[in-house]
Design brief:
With 292 residues, this protein is mainly α. 75% of the residues lie in helices and 0% in strands. Helix 7 runs antiparallel to helix 8 and helix 14 runs parallel beside helix 16.
Length: 292
């Protein structure tokens, strides 16, 4: 298979021996014994059907096997994706580092998603340095132009949309997030889909709050709070309390400040200093924005 390195057979052999499985067990009645032996010696590559069969016999996912093949690390592309999805969008040096790594990757590979990351990092750097959202949107336009033509979005495209959601005008962002959340429903039992859905909803709430649509902000956050409580996620719950508190405060409701205080008490109780700094930064930025 083209997406596996020449070390597939050696990795297969090592795992089989570690698990104390025989070649007969691995081949079962699906693969001829001599064919299996050639795979372990890297003389032939497995067909897709054989590859899936071997994963089943190893009780592994493709992701885990590739991780092992890459010396217990993610591939270069996966590392770029993970770094981009986990970064703080205000961290300009890290954005620039990811951008440079992505460009080096593209020197060797043709890849739509990594190209998207270059466009998105360009947009986020501009936004962080100048605050010029119109200029930032020019850089994400090629990404959206590609994605909007697709008949459906898969997890990686949904992650891209989530990363760029706040660069759309609010009404367009509401429509796009609605479509994205409907697509995510197809992945209802997938372990990563729920995280993407929650992140999309949180980002949409932040957009609504920034655009002064306080009633919608409160309504959508009220939908998020029970899930955050059920998941035991104090971070998500504190963000919900902070944003709902700010929205309530803007409508003149005195309960707003109580919720804001509760958000910070949650983080203090967890002694999560890094997240506390992020929460304080968001609070100060949103207060400054509302006062301008």
């Amino acid at each position: 298979m083209d997406n596996h390195s020449a070390g597939f057979g050696k990795t297969l052999l090592r795992i089989r021996k570690n698990k104390q499985y025989s070649q007969q067990y691995m081949a079962e009645n699906k693969i001829h014994q001599s064919t299996y032996s050639k795979m372990e010696r890297d003389l032939i590559e497995p067909t897709l059907g054989n590859y899936r069969h071997l994963l089943s016999r190893l009780d592994m996912s493709d992701e885990e096997l590739q991780y092992i093949m890459n010396d217990y690390n993610h591939s270069e592309k996966e590392q770029l994706l993970t770094a981009f999805m986990n970064l703080s969008f205000n961290d300009v040096p890290l954005l620039q580092e990811i951008r440079e790594k992505a460009l080096k990757y593209l020197d060797v590979h043709t890849d739509y998603i990594i190209t998207d990351i270059v466009h998105l990092t360009d947009a986020l750097i501009i936004l962080a340095i100048t605050g010029d959202i119109a200029d930032a949107r020019k850089h994400v336009r090629p990404v959206w132009k590609r994605l909007e033509k697709l008949d459906g979005w898969y997890l990686v495209e949904l992650r891209m949309i989530n990363a760029m959601l706040f660069l759309f005008p609010i009404d367009e962002a509401i429509l796009i997030s609605g479509t994205a959340l409907a697509q995510i429903q197809k992945y209802v039992n997938h372990p990563f889909a729920g995280k993407i859905a929650v992140s999309l909803r949180h980002n949409l709430c932040l957009l609504l709050l920034k655009n002064g649509r306080y009633a919608e902000t409160i309504m959508r956050i009220d939908e998020l709070i029970p899930a955050a409580k059920e998941a035991g996620s104090y971070r998500h719950l504190s963000v919900c309390y902070l944003r709902k508190g700010l929205a309530l405060a803007k409508t003149g409701n005195p309960e707003g400040q109580l919720l804001i205080d509760q958000a910070f008490r949650l983080i203090e109780a967890a002694d999560d200093q890094d997240f506390k700094a992020n929460l304080e930064n968001e609070y100060n930025l949103l207060k400054e924005q509302s006062n301008s």
